[in-house]
Automatic annotation (TrEMBL):
CDD domains hit by this protein: Ubl_Urm1
Subcellular location: Cytoplasm
Pfam families the record matches: Urm1
Protein name: Ubiquitin-related modifier 1 homolog
Predominant place of localization: cytoplasm
Length: 64
């Protein structure tokens, strides 16, 4: 999972990467699901991904 986050930051995030990541992990307020399971239950950065796994990032941050 750690490698995927680095790849996303390097290759997909064009503006304001600080809104997605803080240090080596996602910011508080970004929900990460791996195969519909909260990544906090599967080891967060240590989660091992396999081919055909589905990873979803959902921001719970919004303006007022």
């Amino acid at each position: 999972m750690k490698d995927l986050l680095n790849w996303v930051r390097t290759n997909l995030i064009k503006e304001r990467p600080e809104m997605f990541m803080k240090g080596e992990t996602v910011r508080p307020g970004v929900l990460v699901l791996v195969n519909d399971c909260d990544w906090e239950l599967s080891g967060q950065l240590d989660t091992m991904l396999e081919e055909k796994d589905v990873v979803v990032f959902i921001s719970t941050l919004h303006g007022g």
